[in-house]
Amino acid sequence: MKVLLFNGTLSSAQDTSEQITDYLKNHLEHLGFEVVVFGLRRTIFLSLILA
User: Fold this and answer.
1) pTM of this structure
2) I need a labelling partner for 12 at 20 to 30 A (CA). Which of 19, 21, 29, 42 fits?
3) For 3-50, what is each residue's pLDDT tens digit?
4) In sequence order, which ranges of the chain are alpha helices (DSSP H)?
5) Residue 37 — φ and ψ, nearest 5°?
């Protein structure tokens, strides 16, 4: 089964939301899920580079 985790933080530092996302990703992968993390910060960064 696939799981999409959304991390909507725009902070570039290792913050609480990223720690929670990493924990959930690792835990769900351990249970056999295929996890994809969608990070808003990374998406905005890529769109600025490609513009």
Assistant:
1) 0.73
2) 29
3) 999 988 877 667 888 899 999 999 999 999 999 999 887 776 666 666
4) 16-30, 40-50
5) -105, 125
User: Which residues have C-beta within 8 Å of that of residue 38, sequence separation ≥ 6?
Assistant: 4, 5, 6, 7
**34 is written with which tokens?**
């295929």
Domain range spanning residue 39? 2-50
What is the spatial distance between Cα 41 and Cα 34, in angstroms, rounded to a whole number? 22
Let me know: does 28 contact 37? Beta carbons within 8 Å.
Answer: no
Tell me whether strands 34-39 and 2-7 are parallel, antiparallel or unpaired: parallel
| Cβ contact 42:8 at 8 Å | no
